[in-house]
Amino acid sequence: MKMEKHRVAQGKLAYVKGTQRPDVPCILCCVAEGDPRVEDLTVYRRGAVLVTLNLYPFNPGHVMVVPLRHVEDYRDLTPPEAMEMHHMQRLTLNVLEKVYQPGGFNVGYNLGRSSGASIAHLHLQVVPRYATELGFYDIFSDSRALVESPRESMSKLKGAFAAAAPGFFDREG
CATH no. for residue 23? Predict the structure, then answer.
C-alpha cells in the first residue's frame, strides 16, 4: 500500500491567495527597491541581480536569484542580465555548498501562469537538498519541521556571500 503525504507550509496558502500578501504591485520589485512594506531577506546584491531567501523555505538555505528589473520570462532578459543571472547562480551554489554542505540542489524557474510560481517576477529557485531531509517528526506528524528560520539563514549567508564574492566574477567560465 502506497501512502502519500502532503506537506504544509504554514501561512503559504494565505500568501498565495493574497490575504496575507503585502498590497504592492510586485513583491520582488519592492525587495529590489528596498520598499519597507515588504520583508527584505536579501543576502547579496551585485549589478542587475540579487539573491534573497525564500520567505517560505523548503529547506535551510532556500534562496531565489532575482533580476532587479521586472521581467516575467527568462527570454526577456537582456544578454548581460542573463549572464549575470548565470554567474549569480554559480556563486549561489558555491556559497550554499560551503555553508550547508547539502547532498544536492534543485535549481529552476517556474515560467508561465500554470507553472506553480506565486510571484510573476522572474526568479531562479535554488533549494539545497539533503539525504536526511525526512525525520520522525515529518513522517508521523504530517508536517515538515523547519530546522532553521529564514532570518537565521540570512545571518549565515550574508557573510558567506561577502567572503566568496570578491574576485568570483573575474574568473573565466
Answer: 3.30.428.10
